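Marked as duplicate of an earlier ticket. Keeping the data here for the record.
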Amino acid sequence: MSRLCPRLGPRPLLWAARGARRLSAAAAPGMEELLRRSVPPLPPYETKEKAPPPAELRGAEFVQFYRALPPGPPRAELLTRLAQDFGVEHGRVAEAAGKVLQAREQRREPGALLQAEDRLRYYLNPQYRGLFQHLGRLEGGLRFLVELRGDLVEGLASKEVDGPHVKEMSGVLKNMLSEWFCTGFLNLERVTWQSPCEILQKISDSEAVHPVRNWVDMKRRVGAYRRCYFFSHCAIPGEPLIVLHVALTSDISNNIQAIVKEVPPLETEDTEKISTAIFYSISLTQQGLQGVELGTYLIKKVVKELQKELPQIKVFSTLSPIPGFTKWLVGLLSPQTKEQGRNELFTESEWQEISAITGDSSTETLKKLLNNNEWVRSDKLVEVLNPPLMRLCAWYLYGEKHRGYALNPVANFHLQNGSVLWRINWMGDTSPRGIGASCGMMVNYRYFLEDTASNSAAYLGTKHIKASEQVLALVSQFQQNSKL
């Protein structure tokens, strides 16, 4: 598929240091001077309402300077200096905190204490927040801030930029974007085959879960028995920010191949055949909006839209990937090189069958087969691995935790939204990508609309995962047959 249209602003920065030009000695002083001119100083608390806004040209100058820097270390250096040199003024914070403590100890009237706390809150604002606020008000400034946050996210992931100051700045900008990209400023738009070519191209390019193969594939995904929606922002009209694909079916789908098959059927929708909506792909198109809660709002908005269009739909479910399962499983196999270790994941009879097929009683051969996807070529091995991998996957989704919540990010997202861990599907995704990421398994998270609020509160509050009988039975089998 050819690339017909540009994405939001310039393409994300490539932070790899290889091939990136270093900042020249002459560029560094220019950078320092630019930051001094561009970042407005935090005025004293008493004059905060009277401080004039920075000149519009200063913001435009910063944007121009930043975009002119080559990707890699030069931009990384500017972001690092901005975070380190224009953050919170700690002396003022300490002084304001002391006044709060003094007001409490002296049991002063509530108004005095509240004013002292307001002063402290004010001085906790980093200086660069003023720059971001100013840029957000400029034409095209919001688009630029999304790009800049994307650079921060990518730079932190690659360690090109690092340290607590940069992480703090990324978090501050994320919180500001969360306010600017709240539901009141977002527009829900549906994509059809009649949508502008530019939109179709962007939807295709941004698909992160099940890559679009060609125009025929794209036509299928926006055609009969399918829906595609995205959020755009009023300040960036027509630009997809997050995209949701839906399949309209008669039951809960258990494999992705039936949804994204190559050749679309030439048919019109029979609404009597539609009783279920399957959310099978949700993709954030802008890395700079990572952590901004758009997906939850999009699903809720689409549910309401579908209920208006097709009120007979009573079942809402996902067909979701399980990224990271294969890596987790191979990690468990890695320390099990000793003879007694293999029984920690498999029963004795299961391991005998596996060994008979692979011709090796050690875990190394199985690890190699899982890593290179070769095991799916053997029908016998696929059959034998079905029971143990299903129960291991159930435990991975239900029992493996990070800070008390589901370790798997997709599971955590849908459980936070109030869904039920409904069904694990063997060979739900037989594509090389699906086999490599999750041994071919997929999972349904089911949304019972009347229970989502209570399920979400239970998960967020007590970390309780609501799961179906199928999943709980597999978890029980894991607890009986596996030892971790």
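See parent ticket for discussion. DSSP finds 19 helices and nine strands in the chain.
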